Amino acid sequence: MDAVGVIGVGAMGKGMIGSLLQKGYRVFAYDPIPAAQDWAKEVGAQVADSPAEVGRMAHVVITSLPGPAIVEQVLLGMDGLYSTLAPGSYVLDASTIDPATAKRLHEAGLEKGISYFDCPVSGGPAGAAAGTLTIMVGGDESKLPEITPYLQGIGKEVFYLGESGAGQVAKLCHNSVVAVITAALGEAFTVGAKAGVDPQKLAAVMDKGSAHNRVLSVFGPNILYGTYEKTIFSLDHMHKDLHLYTKAAQEKQVPVLVGGTVAQMYEAAKAQGKGAWDSSAVCSVTEELANAKISK
């Protein structure tokens, strides 16, 4: 069986490990949290003591980590992955980070003969568990055939976007649109509720009309029932992604008139202590400003 390393046994990493094991891969997992290590052992993965040990065990390693700083630490830090990975190995970084960091990690990998690909994903924990993630890839296209089987081990749709960093650009743009639609749904449902139109019926109209969107099917129930504590994708994570998106836009001198405004709404929700809630909790900001509730 092919050996695959997975670094980061969080909500996404767990799903990836499960999918890889189901497809016959031998998985070496690392996470500093004891509970995550115990979970990995229980499902059949072998647990490593450090990123460096993962690098000794596998020539293909998937990372799924919270942000740029920890990704750099795991790859380049003391006892990091790059210190032990053999030349000809592959790092498939499924974390959502900024394009500049992805390019820097790509260049550092080249110096050691390691191929780094930014491979951020969409589909959430449910998609990771089902092996149906959408994967956005940036990196050396000539080596794409060699990593595709591993990407298909965790996902269904694989899109090659271009050189290193392109996958991250796509993911940040994608999540910005998701955030904007989420906030727009909250605003529209609040208007409907205050005007006496049942938000449930308004949602049904949107589902059949030109306003149909997948965000409504994924996050709609939390918005309509006010169950923001049922976290699908945390507000903290979306807040981080929007920060990276606006930073990337500024570097390219693109005004973020819509995304920037929505980013401030997420900033407000985070300041209210809602970071651990679902990202749809941004809608509560509009509800509070309007002194209204969407849910009955």
UniProtKB/TrEMBL annotation:
Organism: Brevibacillus choshinensis
Entries under InterPro entries matching the protein: 6-PGluconate_DH-like_C_sf, 6PGD_dom2, 6PGDH_NADP-bd, HIBADH-like_NADP-bd, HIBADH-related, NAD(P)-bd_dom_sf
Superkingdom classification of source: Bacteria
PANTHER family, A to Z: 3-HYDROXYISOBUTYRATE DEHYDROGENASE, MITOCHONDRIAL, 3-HYDROXYISOBUTYRATE DEHYDROGENASE-RELATED
Protein family according to the UniProt entry: Belongs to the HIBADH-related family.
Annotated ranges, domain 6-phosphogluconate dehydrogenase NADP-binding: 4-162
Pfam entry (one): NAD_binding_11
Protein keywords: NAD, Oxidoreductase
Protein name: Hydroxyacid dehydrogenase
Domain 3-hydroxyisobutyrate dehydrogenase-like NAD-binding: 165-284
